[in-house]
Amino acid sequence: MPSLNVGDESNSKNAGISSNVGYLQGLNSKQLEAVEAVDGAVLVLAGAGTGKTRVLTARLAHLIAQKVAMPWSILAVTFTNKAAREMRDRVTNIIGPMAEQVWLGTFHSLGARILRRHAELVNLKPNFTILDTDDQIRLIKQIMQAENLDEKKWPPRVLSGVIQRWKDRGLTPEKVSDDEAKQYADVKLAEIYSQYQDRLSVLNAADFGDLLLHCLTIFQQNPDVLREYQRRLTHLLVDEYQDTNVAQYLWLRFLAQGRQNICCVGDDDQSIYGWRGAEVGNILRFENDFPGSKVIRLEQNYRSTSRVLTAASGLIAHNEDRLGKTLWTDGNDGDKIIVRGVWDGESEARTVGDQVETYQRKGVSLNEMAILVRASFQTREFEERFLTLGVPYQVIGGARFYERMEIRDAIAYLRVIYQPDDDLALERILNKPKRGIGLASLQSIHHLARLESISLWLAIAKIIDTDELRPAARKSLAKLIDDFTRWRSMLDHSDHIELAGIVLDESGYTEMLLKDKSPEAPGRLENLKELVSALEEFDGLGQFLEHISLVMENAEDDTTEQISLMTLHAAKGLEFDKIFLPGWEEGVFPNQRSLDESGAKGLEEERRLAYVGLTRARETVEISFAANRRVYGNWQSSIPSRFISEIPESEIEQFDEMGLSSDFFGGTVQSEAWGQDNFLGQTRFQSAEKRQRLNVKSVNPRDIQVALEDRSSADVTIDETFFAPGDRVFHQKFGMGTVKRSDGDKLEIAFDKAGEKKVISRFVKQL
DNA sequence: TCCTTGCGAATTTTT
DNA sequence: TTCGCAAGGA
Hints:
This protein is an alpha/beta fold.
């Protein structure tokens, strides 16, 4: 039994505990150390596949089981609802229902919880609405329109993004520095931010960033409130610390001040959300932030083969900004990483598809295979291929249930019932179904609302008493207000499930869909039914609305076996036997835009993304790159990703599609691009100018195909030449060489000067 | 009010 | 190329 060093454990060694110590069994010494270091600040650097989740849950259970802390005095924070749920389930399994008492959730859900308690301190009511990204953008758009700003020049999405980044950094409108605002001088963005916040207050709404930002304001301006939390929450536990942004960091600091009983778990090598405001610096600086803190490294990997680990370690070693870890395993060597060069995207999809079927025949379940891409559009080619092959697949992270139009409409109705000042929701359904309230009416209402700084709801209530609108519109609005008032009054005495049905019927929304003859309409009605049944899981409307604004997730279909397609980002935290990593080409991965916008930092993050990809694999990794890719309709030739050459060559087995690895046209664009060798030979970065030059010259592979055919028919004699090992040959670019092996028209030649290459017979002359 | 047309943009997205 | 949005016409 582990020893304890905290005050009130005198009677902790009772019967219940000893039967619980099972959670410590099977932990390695480092893991055990991380679980038992319950005093002071601890940073657990948990490499990929080193049992991070196990440690986290064991530690949480340990705190409670050993009575180091009471469940309600522990704050455990994750980034995703999934992670929170998983932790809750696992801890409940160990220590039982006491786990319910732990403050466990995502940063945002815990932030919302705190904020609802003290909403009035930041000019909100406790029932404030949580806006999603869509709402935010619409709100920004409205402000811009009022300010007469050009939406073409400053897309609302972009401005909303800048404001979000400010919030990520803990900046309220007053705190945005002039320097900062000057970057967007044209648009008085700081002013828009300020107006945006004012609007949110009027709407009694908060966006995701506010859930934390308002907490910071509250903590700062109300020391007594902060002290209350500090006293109550004695032990903090943070998952995925490398992904925290400044606001989250400050939030944690406020709460951890004093006792400094904080345990952060993370992996600097898996920090891939910098573009969203995450600061790798938080984890890199941990020891400075919490002097005297303990750093524990988990380096024994229980997931991958040693080859996969060597490859991943070799790659990530190219990054400078890291704390450094060396993953090891006492498992098998495993297979080498397969790297395939293919002609184009279609060929890539075909090759991967074939490979998937081969594995399937060998008895590998589709559930154990995944294709991880850099950007979501890359899944398309694979989807098409799997459709032709009849291989079941699922795309993770696609369109979500709660984002569908009809669902959002229905939710908008519920939102207005629950919280009348929710303008965005009200506006969404004001004329849906059609109520004869057109643009003109809406503008009058907006005008009044802005003039008096009141919500649309109040503005409508006012305007129907005037003669400003057409009688028809006025009547229609009056009815709507009546309806909503009636529905709202039903909230108290009838249940929300029934209410939802009534609202959808009485508002005419169901009828509208019934009359709709479009092919989508029946599906939409189905979805609404599903929504109503989803309501059953909640105790009340408020709880439901909180859930859907914070937990917009997909229902997973795990009934049939299927291969998974997803982005590398979505793959973090998952693992599969067989991993496919297509599209490893400069510009695609590392992503060009990331390099352009964030330079060396961007490159490092891309590399971490590659590292995440590799370390998802239990058994095998197959990387591929295409020589030609279609980008927005035109063909571009591409060169293999530098990341390929950063993987130790000893861990790689390379296959190139016929003709690619050779000097294809002896001296044309391609040979410059990937000419000197098979692709692995290319170790140095291509200069930006060179890439530029290459991209400018885009080539349609069909044209090349034609060129190829022309050549081969013209050079029949050469084509028919038979090459045998030992033959001396001459190549335009590589010079003299000796044939080592021949396979059809594919030759392996040892060139006197240029080394060993694979080339196609038609490009060499027999001597 | 609805449909057409044309323009421009086009990574990653835990909440 | 393709999608989504906004403006303009019937």
